[in-house]
Design goal:
alpha/beta, 15% strand, Glycerol-3-phosphate (1)-acyltransferase, 11 helices, two-stranded antiparallel ribbon
Length: 279
């Protein structure tokens, strides 16, 4: 049996998910939303990567977008080494950075890579074999906790974006992650995995950051700026990015009695120091 072709149809999705309200949404609003989420380009990407999964899909997506990545320091990690790591990265782009790191680490480690993501991203079926769902806004399900713990106990390498959200403009005008969450530190200790700080270069458009700032000023808690992320990814066409892999931080260094959130902040600082010292 042939595999069902993946296709995004926002209008059909609205009819399926909110049939009672679809009739009240004008057609021009639906078409505007389709342009905002880059529906045509996303479907072209899916067509160009049809039949691929995991790191192969990620590599195909990078090829479609035409973005290139240069890795520094990955050669320090032998693919056949028995060490199990947590690769903790900043999250400047909110899409392409994750795809690029899945492609890089997946190729380097022969597909033995898993990435903890917002559970909404499990709808990206070609990457479902890499993704591990985490509920960013509530209690974790038993299934998601088990999936993450099983992956931690395996010989797969783990990829984390501890900020959860992509980077935002800071009060001083710089672009950087929000506070890093502590879960990757607690998992590092529990499963005795050293943490590798990773810096990924790049940033989104000023439009994205202005939208996020206005949403915050209006007191809206839902991160509605996420709707702009597909467009931000498509704006990366032809761009070049740098990725720096730092030296592993021993998991034992997190067992000194200090709060895990303090150690998370320390690793975050290590990531941005990679940028200052290497770029």
């Amino acid at each position: 049996m042939s595999e069902e072709k993946l296709h995004i149809d926002l209008d059909e999705l609205l009819h399926t998910k909110v049939p009672k309200y679809r009739r009240y949404i004008p057609g021009f609003v639906v078409r505007w939303l389709e342009r905002i989420i880059c529906q045509r380009e996303l479907n072209e990407l899916l067509d160009s990567t049809a039949g691929t999964r995991n790191e192969e899909f990620a590599e195909g997506a990078m090829s479609y977008i035409g973005a290139t990545v240069e890795a520094h320091g990955l050669e320090k990690f032998a693919p056949d080494d028995s060490h199990r790591y947590i690769f903790a990265s900043n999250h400047p782009l909110g899409g392409l950075d994750g795809i690029a790191l899945i492609a890089l680490l997946g190729r380097h480690y022969g597909g033995k890579v898993r990435c903890v993501v917002n559970d909404m991203l499990m709808q990206v079926k070609p990457l479902a074999g890499v993704f591990l769902p985490a509920n960013k806004h509530g209690r974790q399900t038993e299934a998601s906790v088990k999936a993450i713990n099983d992956a931690m106990a395996s010989d797969c390498q783990m990829l984390y974006f501890p900020a959860g959200l992509c980077s935002r403009r800071q009060p001083d005008g710089s672009i950087a992650d929000l506070e890093w969450r502590k879960s990757f530190i607690t998992k590092s200790i529990e499963y005795q995995r050293d943490v590798v700080p990773v810096f990924f270069s790049g940033q989104n458009s000023n439009r994205f950051y202005r939208f996020a700032q206005w949403r915050k000023r209006l007191g809206l808690k839902l991160n509605i700026e996420m709707i702009l992320l597909p467009g931000e990814m498509m704006k990366c066409r032809g761009k070049h990015f740098e990725v720096i892999f730092g030296s592993p931080i021993p998991w034992t260094s997190f067992t000194d009695g200090k709060p895990a959130i303090e150690h998370a902040a320390r690793v975050r600082d290590c990531v941005y120091n990679l940028m200052k010292n290497n770029l």
